[in-house]
Amino acid sequence: MADMQGQLLIVRPMAKQTSKSSEPAPETKKAAGKPKGSQFTVPDGDPVPVEKGSNAYLIDGSGYIFRAFHALPPLTRPSDGLPIGAVHGFCQMLWKFLGDSKMSDAPTHIACIFDASSKTFRNDIYPEYKAHRPPPPEELVPQFPLIRDAVKAFNVACIEQEGYEADDLIATYAKAVDAAGGRVTIVSSDKDLMQLVGGNISMFDSMKNKHFGPEEVEAKFGVGPDKVVDVQALAGDSVDNVPGIPGIGIKTAAELINTYGDLDELLARAEEVKQPKRRERLIEFADQARMSRDLVRLEQNVPVEVQLEEAGVQDVDSNTLLGFLQEMEFATLTRRIAEGLGAEAPPSPKKSVGSTVANAKSGAAKSDGASGVGTPEAGASAGAALATGTDFDRSKYACVTTEKDLVEWLDKARTAGRFAFDTETNSLDAMQAELVGFSIATAPGEACYVPLAHRASGEGFDFGDGGDIDQVATDKALVLLKPLLENPAVLKIGQNLKYDALVLRQQGVGLEGFDDTMLLSYVLDGGRGGHGMDDLAQRHLGHTCISYKQVMEDVPGKKLADKRFSDVVLGKATEYAAEDADVTFRLWLMLKPRLVAERMTTVYETLERPLMPVIVDMEHAGISVDRTILSRLSTSFAQKISELEDSVHELSGEKFNLGSPKQLGE
User: Which of 261, 512, 548, 549 has its CA 20 to 30 A from that of 174?
Assistant: First the structure.
């Protein structure tokens, strides 16, 4: 973050979802005698005074719960199907935020604040306040308690108070720290909090990395922060069901407040307003505007049950945090945070987020009932055991540089009746991509890479013809490969095969008889995480693949986009490409048997797999655009619009800009 010394930072964290255990993750102090509905915990440690130069972060959890929930794909915990996608996103965000803030800003206080309930003092003022809001999504409800548990696990104060919204607590803490000489930064995108900006108080939207000071608030509302409440009182808020004055929006409200100074002065002089309808509404709905002001104005004097001194920054307890993450079954995130804490990561669960099959190297089926030998469940277990039974060893992958060796590998694939296949190219655009090579895997650990168009590196001119590199000529390799790829009796296994099929189509080669592990994953685990090969390898095989960035690091070029796979040395290219085929084959062994075990065969066989060739045909054919017809339509539409505008002007008796809401309102 930018320079924020001596500053109170109010942050809205991303939400998390439910946990296995109902017990709070860390040991924290709990307040006694609090009203029913109020919940708060503070980290262990001595109180830290709030004084001049204090730099506290107040995290408004309520604002980020829904942002996290809707921003991330749904995830469920493998062991019990509990939704935990928002929890995962929240933990990632909070970990990054805490790390960034400590490196750049050295906070003195951190607290996460939530709404305690849907009913507050505002409902006493106006019973219909927020009455139109739909209930939270069913899958989000069980995650609310875990959001609190995650905050506690990070050893951050977790605060909420019955009868008040999180924004009221934020306003109270912010003004208190400001009065004590600290600086305040509200990290949020919530427009309702912009009324607090000014002096030592600013806002920061961490999702967009955007700061808000008085100038930014004025650009948004048309008035300074001290007048935002008056503008909101006039314009109302349909989301919170704040009525305001009908027919007045933000721009009109800002114009009125800038003209008359404030809401009270405007309502007192409403008869001076020139526009008849606007004048009538200001007079008729004056009391409603005053009530709306009471609804949108944040309470800055909440009798808080937790003093901010109790929210002093404390060290994270690695055992507590890693234990919580392990319980959530966030294997990758647990390892990443353990590394950041300098602690040893706990053992990964047999199932991590997005997986429903254990990564056990023993494929013994359960002995009870329907999971016995010969059942679909036993088949899935056997497939998982076969996929993980052989260790990954990149040194054993073969680099095929002669036609003779290529024929041997193709014969091996034909005899096996199934093989994994993957292409390597110089572009993500399949219609423009140059085929650089391809890889094959016939069993776990048995894979090869066939370079076709790699270029020699070193001094001198490079004419792009491969130079002194030993590799099979592209045309000869395709002649040998085509009969196998177009033979429907031999199963081709790929990851996102649509891309490979388009690349091959450009070379005049078809693809018949295939399975796609990306489609299998989508059918089986649609809401349980990403379906890219790297994600699937980590989730199901516990294996981290070589990244494309790692492979390209020694290739000439300033930016990654400028580098070409054809310039990668054959040894590194073989490890990367053959591993892709090996991983794909293993994923197929794990995922394909689950179709029957989980009764998803029909979805895959009748919907997802048959659709892929159709999309390939569509993308290859493209769309014909007739510019002449489009130009003719544009002219016709322009003439019709002009005729309609003339009709409107004739009916109204005067000419005005139909595109101007202001002129339309008048």
Answer: 261
**Interatomic CA distance for residues 88 and 329, integer angstroms:** 10
CA distance 206 to 572: 39
Q: Name the pTM for this structure.
A: 0.53
Query: Looking at residues 35-51, what average pLDDT do you find?
Result: 77
Based on the number of CB atoms within 10 Å of its own CB, is 601 exposed (0-12), middle (13-18) or buried (19 or more)?
middle
C-beta atoms surrounding 370 within 10 Å: 10
Mean of pLDDT values over 557-566? 85
For the segment 267-302, what is each residue's pLDDT rounded down to a tens digit? 999 999 999 999 999 999 999 999 999 999 999 999
| Residue 212, C-beta contacts closer than 8 angstroms, at least 6 positions apart | 194, 197, 202, 203, 204, 205, 220
Q: What is the pLDDT of residue 100?
A: 74
The structure tokens listed for 338 are 């353990």
Q: What is the pLDDT of residues 135-161, one digit of tens each?
A: 778 888 888 899 899 999 999 989 999
Spatial neighbors of 434 by CB under 8 A, at least 6 apart, are 425, 426, 427, 453, 566
Task: Check if the beta carbon of residue 74 is closer than 8 Å to that of residue 139.
Answer: yes
Residue 361 reports pLDDT greater than 70: no
Task: Give the 3-state secondary structure of residue 573.
Answer: helix
Q: Is residue 198 within 8 Å of 227, Cβ to Cβ?
A: no
CB 84 within 8 A of CB 17: yes
**If you average pLDDT over residues 208-223, what whole number do you get?**
90
**In contact, 493 and 585? CB cutoff 8 Å:** yes
Query: Which of 126, 114, 125 lies closest to 63 in space, CA to CA?
Result: 114
Looking only at the bridges linking them, the beta strands covering 157-159 and 109-113 are: parallel
